[in-house]
Amino acid sequence: MSTIVNALTPVLSLILAGFLIRRSEFLSPSFWPSAERLTYFLLMPAALIHSLAGKKIGSLPWFGILVTVEWVVAASALLVILWGAANRRMGGGVFTSLFQGGVRFNTFVALALAESLFGKEGLFLAALGAGFMIVLINVLCVSAFSLTVGSGGGLDLRRLGADLARNPLIIGCLLGIGINASGWQLPAAIDGTLALAGKAAFPVGLMAVGAAYRAGDLARHWQPTLVSCGIQFLCKPVLAWWVAAATGLSGAAAGVVLLLFSVPTAPTAYILSRQMGGDHDSMASIITAQTCLSFFTLPVTLWVLL
Q: For this UniProt entry, which segments traverse the membrane (predicted)?
């Protein structure tokens, strides 16, 4: 329990810090949109390139991890789509918040918990699983925005292709994977620069989430928040446990996969929502609610399924 609290407390603390800074007007209101753009276009891509370029899979059970994480991500996306289809009165912006709340995962919390619970092996396995998930998740989320908000919605393949091609998170993932696959090693100076820039992505993104929070948002957006929490904390862990068993994963590999699908959604979901025209108020509510709730759900999930 203390391990989970120690990993989640910094996340919630930075969200609270952003909320207090915005309310105290310590910084100009114009600071936050600039911070969001900096995170979205520079800091997060740097973190993704650094993370994916240097992870060598070697003799790890990479195929079982790949199948498990991709299957569960696709299944969770399908659950959100089916719920959205049954609730057509929900706006496209709110749907994108629900989609990200049910599909994304908090990489920071997952990696911190993996290292605390399973040591260096767990950290490496978690980074491997996260790398497999990142590209698919970003393609799915950008597609959700492209198809449901702006230009009247609808299937516009040209717009979808353009949104995917210029999305900095997807570009960062592809660059990282390409460098890894080529066998080329980043020069130490470049890798160090990317690592340093990437470290700033999480605190800036978390404080931006807190700055965007408005009193009453949780009550106003209770339905997408409740549904996203159900998918994130109930459906996904059970699916991950079942698929991991079916693919033969065991030990630390199985535990890490389960962990990846038990953490709250990612703060970067808010940045993407702001940049692509989503309902960022509902997104901030979902992130805050899931982060708080995970203090209780994570210990129960790990105790029951591990």
A: 62-86, 98-118, 124-147, 168-186, 192-213, 250-272, 284-305
